[in-house]
């Protein structure tokens, strides 16, 4: 018996997840909220996205409000979510929707894909969920369900096109938006990477991996290469008036447009040295014994932290600024820099006298 969309939809009607960006049953979805949530959910968990999404929507309630906002405000609202190119694309996309489409999102996958930052997955998800179009939205959850259901042996990511074909073959003419969300929910809550709850799955009958007991071996993946660790130095300079030296990273590339404390170059085996041009200013730099570690998609990073104090009269070097510690939350600081600042400022805080 082949898997049927009706079984999945019946399961979804009983178990649908209530999420802040989803429409309630019988209501129309808001394309702006669907699109923004899908961008935020790329490489990020629902639990992490929820509070950001609520704050983001309170700050930019419409696509017009987002388009009109200064880019620093968008980056600050995004700070901490990671993968910052998404925030830049989000802003550019909102501006394109307003300038080229009168503030209305295109309803088709093709139209959506012409917008900045919208790839195959997001176009499919927005077309299906916001406009009830028969589109395939294939994310990691859907890949897992489909490769197990049909025991797809091809390795990821090459198997993506096979997964997509399978989704399209199951797509019902009625309720394609609910079908897309149902598949995502099934992958997220039942067909989990470890210990899938097959006994509760509406497709337990036709599932080939379940019949073979090989569920956890899908999707098949090529061995992952991890990048070489890069090393660098981060310089936390605290002025006597309680302000910290910051600068903005170049607009393009890793953490583009985000704020940071000045850092040296980052490369494998690099040993930063304040005395040989790595530090932004001359100061009595102190090296902290414990570095800050962070893992980017392509490489792990280890930053050695140097801290120093400076008199209130010190001016920032060209292209840098002093920001009061109490206003740091207004800066678009990525989580790496929050870790650096936390460690650096703690080391600069005098011990209370007992
Ligand atoms: S039966 Fe198990 S492995 Fe197969 S789709 Fe359902 S949860 Fe996933």
- The CATH topology of the largest domain is what? Endonuclease III, domain 1
Number of domains: 2
- Could you name the ranges where pLDDT drops below 50 across 5 or more consecutive residues? none
Cofactors, ions and other ligands in the entry:
iron/sulfur cluster
Shape: globular
Number of strands: 7
Give the helix proportion (percent range). 25-40%
Structural class: alpha+beta
- Estimated share of beta-strand residues: 5-15%
Secondary-structure element string: HHHHHHHHHHHHEEEEEEEH
Count of discrete alpha- or pi-helical segments spanning 4 or more residues:
13
Spatial separation of the terminal alpha carbons? 75 Å
The CATH class of the largest domain: Mainly Alpha
CATH superfamily of the largest domain: Hypothetical protein, domain 2
Summarize the structure in words:
By secondary structure, the chain is an alpha+beta fold. Helices cover 39% and strands 11% of the residues. The strands form two sheets. Strands 1, 4, 5 and 6 form a four-stranded mixed beta sheet that branches. Strands 3-2-7 form a three-stranded antiparallel beta sheet, with no helix packed on it. It starts with a helix and ends in a 6-residue tail after the last helix. The site of iron/sulfur cluster has 14 residues, from α9 and α12.
Topology at a glance:
Layout: H1 5-15, H2 31-41, H3 46-59, H4 63-68, H5 71-78, H6 85-101, H7 109-113, H8 120-131, H9 140-149, H10 160-170, H11 176-189, H12 208-212, E1 230-239, E2 243-248, E3 259-260, E4 286-287, E5 292-295, E6 300-310, E7 320-324, H13 335-348
Parallel strand pairs: 1-6
Antiparallel strand pairs: 2-3, 2-7, 4-6, 5-6
This protein binds iron/sulfur cluster (SF4).
């Amino acid at each position: 018996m082949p898997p049927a969309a009706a079984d999945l939809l019946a399961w979804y009607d009983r178990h649908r997840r209530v999420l802040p960006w989803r429409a309630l049953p019988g209501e129309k979805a808001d394309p702006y909220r669907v699109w923004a949530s899908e961008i935020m959910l790329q490489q990020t968990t629902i639990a992490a996205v929820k509070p950001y999404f609520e704050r983001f929507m309170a700050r930019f309630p419409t696509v017009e409000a987002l388009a009109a906002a200064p880019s620093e405000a968008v980056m600050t609202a995004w700070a901490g979510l990671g993968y910052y190119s998404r925030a830049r694309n989000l802003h550019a996309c909102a501006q394109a929707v307003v300038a080229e489409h009168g503030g209305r999102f295109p309803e088709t996958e093709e139209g959506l894909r012409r917008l900045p930052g919208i790839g195959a997955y997001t176009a499919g998800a927005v077309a299906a969920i916001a406009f009830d179009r028969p589109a395939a939205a294939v994310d990691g959850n859907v890949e897992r369900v489909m490769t197990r259901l049909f025991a797809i042996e091809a390795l990821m990511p090459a198997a993506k096109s096979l997964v997509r074909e399978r989704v399209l073959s199951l797509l019902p003419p009625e309720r394609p938006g609910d079908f897309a969300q149902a598949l995502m929910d099934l992958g997220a809550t039942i067909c989990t990477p470890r210990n899938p709850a097959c006994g509760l799955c509406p497709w337990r009958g036709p599932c080939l991996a379940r019949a073979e007991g090989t569920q956890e071996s899908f999707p098949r993946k090529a061995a992952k290469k991890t990048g070489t660790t890069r090393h660098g130095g981060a310089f936390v300079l605290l002025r006597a008036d309680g302000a910290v030296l910051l600068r903005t990273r170049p607009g393009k590339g890793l953490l583009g447009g985000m704020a940071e404390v000045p850092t040296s170059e980052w490369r494998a085996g690099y040993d930063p040295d304040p005395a040989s041009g790595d530090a932004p200013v001359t100061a009595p730099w102190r090296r902290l014994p414990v570095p800050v570690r962070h893992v980017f998609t392509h490489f792990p990073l280890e930053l050695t932290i140097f801290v120093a104090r400076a008199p209130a009269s010190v001016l920032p070097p060209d292209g840098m600024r002093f920001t009061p510690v109490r206003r740091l939350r207004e800066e678009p600081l990525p989580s790496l820099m929050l870790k650096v600042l936390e460690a650096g400022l703690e080391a600069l805080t005098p011990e209370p006298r007992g």
